[in-house]
């Protein structure tokens, strides 16, 4: 994955990029980003809508600003809503929230906006959170003991408390899944999902497009089991109004809205029940979508595919790409260009030859020859000079020896 595909990172220098551990791009236009460095500092940049950058002021910035409240907190991951609001969790399971809060989606007990990260307590006190997921204006948190907590907007039942009243603080989703160990969560724009340790899927919230996969278009105020007979699901991911699920055998299932072909069925008709798709791709190892849009992606061990709303076009069946990572699909084709999950540092290790050469330019650690011009040292590489210049090719293949002599140039 090349960082340059994300325009919000266009002005970052290479030394800063080399120190990145985790990065997240979000916002209604993909104009905001949060970065965690290997030294455990946190930075943000972008337009700072609703104070979503987590800094003291509401100013925007093209270059990284330090988020003091999150530095040295051992940040593990992020999720974000459409306000936007940002939820992050740490190594010890603490949760911090900031940004838009008009529907109590920060879980702080009030609807007052905060642009400085605040610790989320309430029902999460004493709990270790291991995953967070955000819809447009609601939030889910998964604890280490398999419990799901929800807060925020609840006009369609997406908080799962049996009513449509907004939830100002984290409240456990106990109906139906109270005795079930949940291992994964996901959010669509106004819907919620949970995957159990036995491979079962539960959905609740808005269902006007069939995105809950329960065979109808009726909203659900409590978790409802989705019928996937004989299939063990390991992961669910959501677009604005469509849902993808991955089985332990590498099978892909989809349901919900399909006006852009985001279900990968070859047509644009909505589906209210899970349907197996992309059977000709072989074993799928991962899937991706974002509640901001209508694009879908999947990868096998060797290839990356995309479909749905791809840069304004409706692609109704999976298309093979030349990308090495699904992150590139969202950087180049998603509207808006946002990350489907935080980018991890390992994504930066696979540099192209051109980028590797750029980093090696004038680097004394890797050079094997040094020129001094007007008192300034320039580090170079004999092999590259031979390739690029006949003069140096002849010089280095002869009996020329390096020395400290000074030469006058015209």
TrEMBL record:
Stretches forming RCC repeats: 93-145, 146-198, 199-249, 250-300
BTB domain boundaries: 367-410
Claim: Metal-binding is one of the keywords in the record: no
Protein name: BTB domain-containing protein
Superkingdom of source: Eukaryota
Keywords: Repeat
Cross-referenced SUPFAM superfamilies: POZ domain, RCC1/BLIP-II
One matching Pfam family: BTB
Keyword Repeat attached: yes
